[in-house]
């Protein structure tokens, strides 16, 4: 059989005569985390118009397609849900704020007057990215948090404090693996244990932290027990 005379040859000739082409139109831009590049990149949001082509020339409309997200660097296209994932910069800020809020909540449960608890909280917050954090700053923020939520030190986690925790942790939880979510809870547990065993108020706050991080109650109990068995 001569080259190009078989079934594949006929299909190739047909596709070179008739086909489809998509004309993309920019509809917005921004920054996103590109899984193709593995980092933060600029993007364009594109809408597309599909057309039948004859000999490579568009002749008839075939409907709309997209929208899609096109990476400005690698030019790969992704579905719009890719924008639900935070950029590296945004993710770092969310993680930093989460650790800071958990530290304040645990201190508000009774550790604000303890030097060792404040020291432990400062270490956690600095490691998360607040390099200039001091004990005095955290103590002052705990007072402001109590005034804002109407909470008294040592009380169980009230509605106001629970809202603060959920606002900081809810957006972050879907983007963390199990080990990452448990790590935040563990940091809070270590702050609580810095001045002695858990108080009921500290356990209540840590249970709220676990719930906001979508950690089941059994795993919260496991993490808190493991922290209590591990020397700080």
Automatic annotation (TrEMBL):
InterPro entries: DjlA_N (IPR007791), TerB-like (IPR029024). Residues 121-222 form the Co-chaperone DjlA N-terminal domain. CDD domains: terB_like. It comes from the Bacteria. This is Co-chaperone DjlA N-terminal domain-containing protein.
């Amino acid at each position: 059989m001569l080259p190009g005379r078989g079934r594949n040859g006929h299909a190739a000739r047909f596709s070179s005569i008739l086909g489809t082409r998509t004309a993309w139109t920019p509809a917005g831009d921004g920054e996103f985390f590109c899984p193709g590049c593995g980092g933060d990149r600029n993007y364009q949001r594109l809408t597309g118009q599909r057309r039948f082509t004859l000999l490579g020339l568009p002749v008839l409309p075939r409907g709309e397609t997209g929208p899609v997200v096109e990476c400005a660097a690698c030019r790969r296209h992704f579905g719009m849900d890719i924008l639900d994932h935070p950029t590296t910069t945004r993710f770092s800020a969310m993680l930093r704020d989460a650790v800071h809020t958990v530290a304040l909540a645990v201190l508000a449960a009774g550790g604000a007057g303890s030097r060792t608890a404040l020291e432990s909280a400062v270490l956690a917050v600095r490691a998360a990215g607040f390099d200039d954090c001091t004990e005095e700053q955290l103590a002052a923020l705990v007072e402001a948090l109590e005034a804002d939520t109407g909470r008294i030190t040592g009380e169980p986690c009230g509605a106001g404090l629970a809202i603060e925790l959920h606002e900081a942790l809810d957006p972050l939880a879907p983007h963390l693996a199990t080990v990452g979510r448990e790590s935040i809870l563990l940091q809070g547990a270590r702050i609580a244990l810095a001045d002695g065993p858990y108080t009921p108020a500290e356990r209540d706050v840590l249970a709220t932290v676990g719930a906001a991080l979508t950690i089941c109650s059994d795993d919260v109990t496991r993490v808190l027990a493991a922290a209590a068995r591990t020397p700080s």
